[in-house]
Write a structure and sequence with these properties.
By secondary structure, the protein is of the alpha+beta class. It has an 8-stranded antiparallel β-sheet with strand order 3-4-8-9-12-17-18-19. The chain has a 4-stranded antiparallel β-sheet with strand order 1-2-10-11, with no helix packed on it.
């Protein structure tokens, strides 16, 4: 038996397993591995240990297939081939690719372009893509040149009776799905669990998490939002997902120093520069991990005040943490409050 503890921390979300079985129990299996430059973890309840090896293999195969489609780091991925071509003719893509781009365009429109999957040239310019980190801060001309190659209006999903196509009307348009890839893969793992006849599970890829059913103690799955510090055990809030997906975007871990300044990995498509506002963490709960993963990025780009307005307008379940002086101040929407576990 073990006491309540944090078993995993991914991008600001800590996964809790309540008192009960350990990882070798026949009632609760824990599997984990690596994908998309991050880690995945699957916990299932009520599944015999004899299935663990086969499940682990099926999970890794599914994630490897997703990575082969969505990666910008692999030159032979489906997405990389689309980015490499200068053709503006429609390119055939899988239903998976069409689905994630369609969702990204939808959220991008609702955030007035703050969540922009065509921001790849700027991501690369600032050293957060496959390209190396810059030696010096990019100048205005470099930023404007990269911005000229971006814009959601230049990317289109075409649906037909014989398949789906992706089309760009800028030859150099570069699509980066890393902002939503983790959520997409997490939803894929959930579907895999259902296909395997497993109804009680907690799955995560990077900072995206989704649960169904209950854990081995017949308790709801719980996750915790980490405080924006380097102490992995510092918990800001705990939630019960109730069959939803959750994702956190934060500016306090993925950064580097350049010319004496801290450079955040969150790029504002409007300015072409890393964000400099006081919002340090945005967590969203949504029906799917893909939706949560898209919304949290858009909110992070917007900053505290604009993010709060957008959350209230669209009735999102969101939790924001901002830095005010030496303190961190949190804010949650009424929809998010419904998921929060009240202190004992």
């Amino acid at each position: 038996m073990m006491n309540n503890k944090i078993n995993l921390l991914v991008a600001g979300i800590a996964i809790f397993l309540l008192a009960g079985c350990d990882s070798h129990s026949s009632q609760q299996l824990i599997m984990e591995g690596k994908t998309m430059g991050t880690v995945w973890r699957v916990t299932v309840a009520g599944v015999d240990n004899t299935r663990k090896a086969a499940l682990q293999q099926a999970i890794q195969q599914r994630l490897d297939a997703d990575d082969a489609e969505l990666s910008t780091w692999k030159p032979d991925s489906v997405l990389s081939r689309f980015n490499q071509t200068r053709s503006t003719a429609p390119q055939p893509v899988s239903d998976n690719m069409a689905d994630i781009v369609t969702q990204a365009l939808r959220i991008g429109a609702k955030t007035a372009g703050a969540m922009d999957i065509t921001v790849g040239p700027l991501v690369n310019l600032w050293g957060f893509g496959p390209d190396k980190q810059p030696v010096h801060t990019p100048d205005k001309a470099q930023i404007e040149a990269a911005k000229a190659q971006t814009g959601l209006q230049h990317l289109h999903v075409i649906q037909g009776v014989n398949g789906q196509w992706l089309q760009k009307d800028l030859p150099d348009l570069y699509v980066d799905l890393s902002t939503m890839g983790e959520g997409f893969a997490t939803d894929h793992l959930a579907r895999l669990m259902e296909q395997q006849g497993i109804n009680n599970y907690l799955v995560s890829v990077g900072g995206a998490v989704l649960s169904r059913g209950r854990n081995a103690n017949n308790q709801p799955w719980r996750v915790a939002i980490q405080k924006p510090t380097d102490r992995e055990s510092a918990v800001q809030a705990r939630v019960e997902l109730q069959g939803h997906g959750i994702s956190t975007s934060g500016s306090y871990r993925n950064y580097y120093e350049l010319d004496g300044k801290r450079i955040s990995h969150v790029i504002d498509p409007a300015s072409g520069r890393p964000i400099v506002h006081k919002l340090v963490s945005a967590t969203v709960i949504a029906p799917t991990a893909l939706e949560a993963d898209g919304w949290d990025t858009g909110l992070m780009v917007l900053g505290t005040e604009k993010a709060q307005s957008l959350v209230l307008k669209h009735h999102l379940a969101a939790y924001l943490i901002s830095k005010q002086g030496d303190k961190f101040v949190s804010w949650m929407s009424p929809q998010f409050a419904a998921f929060v576990i009240k202190p004992d």
